[in-house]
């Protein structure tokens, strides 16, 4: 439509010229305008973050397949009931099985990563079998047992769906404290699996309510009256022909959750259920026919596989943040609100300094998480390669154990840090969309509800952060003992240089350098870890045992771990940026500096406390963050485009790539809420508003009051 | 059951003595133990916070009435569908109407406050008519018009339910930018209400989808082609006899939201709808028969009523925090996890220093919000008394305007600060409940979803915080000009004393004093407000206009407002505590100091930046927070009990007063999820697990692998 035509139409619609002017800039034009600003090759950035063009193409292929698969229809997801969602989630199994059996492990892993972004509930439900149950077999079964259960159909889902029964009503993180018992009955050569108390009820068991035929049950091994700790047992739950529960098994539905309602979490109680002795997974601990218990020697070597979940969650935190920011930033690029005194065209949200402050640091953080996730995955894969076949007595066993320890602590800390970051990013994005963020259809509320559990499962975030803190203290003590530490905590080998070091720059602008920021973080982290270490030592000197001492200084541990994680992310980001050149470097270095300075500003107390930066330097950093927010804002849409998430994946009218947010949003709301007969007018409203309310009202002559008597200009 | 009996039963259940020991401390006993620690009169604290015994008794009466009213049944709320919830919400109208018509305004306000804690969706839906629609009449109608609409049934809901049609798809906070038009047609003496564009669609209108017969519509007044700004018009929407929409009115359902699904939010489009001229509410602007527009002189005087919502939300933030903390702290008092090396009895969560750190500062903050809410309500009531009948030319008009300005800014800042605090408190409480926090039945997830909108409606929190920031800058400039400021910002009259002032204490312990903390906050706030003011002045000197200058320094404004709010809350809390004595004082002063020091720790960067505290003092504050957390933890259950929320109000098995959390939780889960036939076994699971998967599996002789061949002890 030409401007003249628009004007004519505007006049017809009782629009004043002012309003017509305000209309002149429509959302699609606004979005195009932003996209035209790209100062770098968006595709190149996508490929960089994906780890190569092949990975990008694979990702695009999978996104397209999902979008075209009617089972993966997602735009009606907010209005279907829990039972519909449960059923639809189960329905997706068959299509995923096809891929599982016909593509490489690497491709399937990528597929699952993308599926988790589209339908986290399905991803979990499917993962309960393939990740948790099959993972438990792989970690705990002897080769013979593995063959047996695979032969029974555990891999192909033939008469077999597994679930993972670890947590109990009264016990979550404390696995050694689980109450379920597995008592060896020598006479019958069986274990008796039993739920002795209410709190021993297996709880939150994904797949238990409607899917599983078998469970990997974690229970206290009791042989000849002696407890041998928590072991894993395969327990049949249901007859696969009828899905009736087997004798002694009681299962119920856990019901409604905050999110991920597609998963059929259940509770299980066992009442003296007998299973063959060989159903105990005996790769590590073995129980013989005569009740001899053989304990494993280096069980730590088996922990590696348990870290997979955490590593995946670092990547998921980065991916979900990308999805949330795609919505909030695209919306901010087209949403206009208030106009300055100089123009009638309202200002884009993205042009408000405060809106830049709300979103740009989170965008920078998301890039930092993305680079970190890649590195974390590499670290994990490297570790698994080293662990493969490693056994006690190997020449390099100490080194392998060291790598395991580092990966364990790093993944613990990053899982916590990145899932917390992601959860707050989703909420910040939701709030940044104003009222529309409260609509289910704009996608951020369910994203929050679905994601929130990531802060709790596979290790409560606070507990995981404390684990990293413990590792930092022990690394500090190792360093004092002269040990050369691994790179992630290498700065603790330089305590004498770092403690007391101040920022030395000739000009304030010299602060804007990754090297200097890295140094600053090292100084601060060295100080807080050292403080925690000193506090810990003091506790030991007061006579506390190691555990009590760690408990006593848990706040210092938490603080140290948190700062270490900020620093760690910045290092990964700076590393990543140092490897690129040209216009890609030009844009990424700004994003990287923004993350660095923002993270310093967020922790200004620590930088001032240890006097690395002076108050004036902190002031400079604060204003630099403002400037960098503005700089990054200029490339915000191209940067978000580089996340390369299709409209289907984002599944939010506010995050539409074309910027046509209002049209898509209105369509979605109308489509999802077709007009119907009034559902309860006759039953509820009519009796209410037509009831007898006394005689004072409804007098027609009261209309007299409507017109104001002193209608002044007519006097 | 005696201990001997327990032991016998334990042995029968295959329990080892260790497990039996761990069972010895049951949740109810744990709770009783905590309650027995009370070192103060719980009832006295309840009465203090309620503002007198009469208020406490009233609150208890209302809680009991609600609990006994079958319409207010709440324990099945998590499993009913949106349409059931909508219908049930409407059903509650009649019982509330009864109270509305039969009790004093004060009593009814208290009732609504309590209802909002039980069923925030209903509270909103009912409030749309009585708060927003009737409020719009009261603020904007002439006495005659008010009488007319009341005569039509607007007060008694007789053939009349109102809604409040302000926000549009494309406009939320920017009311002057609304696009809906109300064009005066002199020939017919009518206004033509029209939705000119998609973005002008009225959006989020509570009550529009299913309830309202009339709307208070905010639209651009156009008379003789000239725009006169946004005014309020009463527009009939539906025939009250049939609930069919009237000609030219199109209404749709906004559908699923993050929370509060009991409200029937709708969208409305007007297509040249004619209404009588007198349906424009003409208390302020008047339009005569001949199209003469008479603008109001001092419209600001009418803004007072608009602040009611914000003031209510400060109280709601405090109340909802109390509810969330009742759940998390009671659960932490009975939940045990991990045992130290010295005992087999697992440790209560509440005894972990890190868990104290997670919850005790939030408990302290909630007390601060509670005292602040009381003061904010008093300030508002005082203002309304002064505003009543105030008009241009009154001798005290300047003073009245000053009070209005202060209440406006204070309520803006506190609404934002307290609703943000409350939202994070809910989430922190949810995470502190571990996995169970993710269950719908434990109540925290829906509390979060319901509360989240408070950060957006009645003014987006960021924008409101900026408003406070603007007030702080203008107060700073007034102070420089020699004006004596109102108490809330009185510290800005002492800039010469405060700027550069350092904490002067002989001994570190002297920091533990409300007076010193107040001084510290004044110094910090004086500095940040002054910095923002200097930045603002510099912008003006560079030639920016006032609005641009404010925009430019929005980050400094936000920062100043945030710190001012911390300080404000601490002042209110310290004020409140200074008025009590004895054992109540002894416990409250610790809670108060905890809030003070925690708030300093959270903003350590600012205290170090302006050098009020030295790094060593900040270290002392950090460790004092640890100690105070431990102190407050000792009284945590009595403190939570003083919130005096019944089990019905809390509606969470984890928050049960008796501590019997597992029994209640398991009961709730079972009751809410009765066992049924498998819903989709035949359709989905059977075909999946019995499909042909190729010939390799299901060979019975594969059982051979199950037994490990090198079953060593038998060799």
Describe this entry's structure for a reader.
The structure is a homodimer of 715-residue chains. With 715 residues, chain A is α+β, with helices and mostly antiparallel strands. The first copy, chain A, folds into 3 domains: 1-36, no CATH class; 138-296, Butyryl-CoA Dehydrogenase, subunit A, domain 2, CATH 2.40.110; 305-641, Butyryl-CoA Dehydrogenase, subunit A, domain 3. Chain A is 54% helix and 8% strand. Chain A has 26 helices and 11 strands. Chain A has helices spanning 3-12, 17-23, 27-35, 42-50, 53-68, 82-91, 93-102, 105-118, 120-140, 143-151, 308-334, 353-387, 397-432, 444-451, 461-480, 495-498, 514-541, 546-552, 554-578, 582-602, 604-609, 615-634, 636-641, 647-650, 661-672, 681-689; strands at residues 162-165, 181-185, 190-194, 202-205, 214-223, 226-236, 249-253, 266-270, 273-276, 286-287, 293-294. In chain A, strands 1, 2, 3, 5, 6 and 9 form a 6-stranded mixed beta sheet that branches. In chain A, β2 and β3 (190-194) form a beta hairpin. The two termini of chain A are 49 Å apart. The interface between A and B is large, with 181 and 180 residues.
């Amino acid at each position: 439509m030409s401007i003249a035509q628009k004007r004519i139409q505007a006049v017809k619609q009782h629009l004043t010229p002012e309003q017509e002017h305000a209309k002149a800039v429509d959302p699609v034009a606004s979005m195009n305008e932003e996209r035209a600003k790209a100062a770098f090759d968006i595709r190149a950035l996508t490929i960089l973050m994906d780890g190569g063009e092949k990975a990008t193409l694979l990702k695009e292929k999978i996104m397209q397949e999902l979008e075209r698969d009617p089972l993966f229809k997602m735009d009606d997801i907010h209005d279907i009931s829990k039972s519909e969602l449960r059923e639809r989630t189960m329905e997706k199994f068959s299509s995923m099985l096809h891929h599982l059996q016909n593509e490489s492990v690497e491709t399937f892993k990528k597929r699952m990563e993308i599926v988790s972004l589209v339908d986290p509930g399905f991803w979990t439900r499917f993962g309960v079998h393939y990740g948790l149950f099959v993972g438990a077999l792989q970690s705990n079964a002897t080769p013979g047992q593995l063959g047996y259960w695979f032969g029974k159909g555990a891999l192909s889902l033939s008469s077999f769906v597994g679930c993972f029964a670890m947590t109990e009503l009264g016990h979550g993180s404390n696995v050694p404290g689980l109450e379920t018992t597995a008592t060896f009955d020598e006479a019958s050569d069986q274990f008796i699996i039993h739920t002795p108390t209410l709190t021993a009820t297996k709880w939150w068991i994904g797949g238990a309510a409607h899917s599983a035929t078998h469970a990997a049950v974690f229970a206290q091994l009791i042989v000849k009256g002696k407890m041998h700790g928590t072991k894993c047992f395969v327990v049949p739950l249901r007859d696969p022909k009828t899905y009736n529960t087997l004798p002694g098994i009681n299962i119920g539905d856990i019901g409604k959750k905050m999110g991920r309602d597609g998963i059929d979490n259940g509770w299980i109680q066992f009442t003296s259920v007998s299973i063959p002795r060989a159903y105990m997974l005996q790769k590590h601990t073995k129980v013989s026919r005569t009740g001899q218990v053989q304990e494993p020697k280096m069980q730590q070597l088996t922990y590696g596989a348990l870290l997979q979940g955490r590593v995946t969650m670092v990547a998921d935190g980065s991916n979900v943040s990308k999805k949330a920011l795609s919505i909030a930033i695209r919306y901010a690029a087209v949403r206009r609100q208030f106009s300055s005194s100089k123009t009638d065209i309202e200002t884009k949200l993205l042009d408000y300094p405060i809106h830049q402050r709300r979103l740009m640091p989170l965008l920078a953080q998301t890039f930092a998480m993305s680079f970190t996730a890649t590195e974390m995955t590499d670290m994990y894969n490297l570790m698994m390669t080293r662990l493969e076949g490693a056994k006690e007595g190997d020449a390099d066993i100490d080194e392998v154990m060291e790598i395991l320890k580092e990966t364990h602590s790093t993944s613990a800390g990053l899982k916590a840090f990145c899932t917390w970051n992601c959860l707050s990013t989703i909420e910040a994005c939701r709030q940044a969309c104003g009222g529309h963020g409260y609509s289910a259809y704009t996608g951020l509320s369910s994203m929050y509800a679905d994601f929130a559990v990531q802060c709790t499962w596979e290790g409560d975030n606070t507990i995981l952060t404390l684990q990293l803190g413990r590792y930092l203290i022990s690394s500090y003590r190792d360093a004092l003992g002269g040990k050369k530490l691994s790179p992630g905590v290498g700065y603790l080998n330089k305590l004498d240089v770092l403690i007391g070091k101040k920022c030395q720059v000739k000009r304030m602008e010299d602060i804007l350098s990754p090297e200097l920021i890295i140094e600053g973080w090292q100084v601060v982290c060295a100080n807080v870890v050292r403080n925690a270490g000193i506090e810990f030592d003091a506790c030991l000197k007061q006579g506390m045992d190691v555990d009590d001492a760690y408990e006593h200084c848990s706040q210092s541990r938490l603080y140290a771990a948190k700062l270490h994680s900020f620093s760690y992310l910045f290092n990964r980001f700076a590393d990543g940026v140092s490897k690129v050149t040209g216009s890609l470097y030009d844009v990424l270095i700004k994003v990287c500096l923004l993350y660095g300075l923002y993270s310093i500003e967020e922790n200004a107390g620590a930088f001032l406390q240890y006097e690395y930066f002076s108050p004036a330097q902190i002031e400079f950093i604060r204003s630099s963050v403002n400037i960098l927010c503005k700089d990054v804002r200029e490339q915000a849409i191209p940067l978000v485009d580089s996340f390369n998430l299709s409209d289907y994946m984002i599944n939010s009218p506010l995050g539409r790539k074309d910027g046509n947010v209002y049209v898509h949003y209105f369509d979605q709301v109308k489509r999802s809420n077709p007009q119907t007969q009034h559902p309860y007018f006759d039953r509820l409203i009519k009796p209410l508003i037509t009831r007898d309310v006394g005689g004072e009202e409804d007098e027609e002559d009261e209309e007299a009051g409507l017109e104001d008597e002193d209608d002044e200009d007519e006097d």
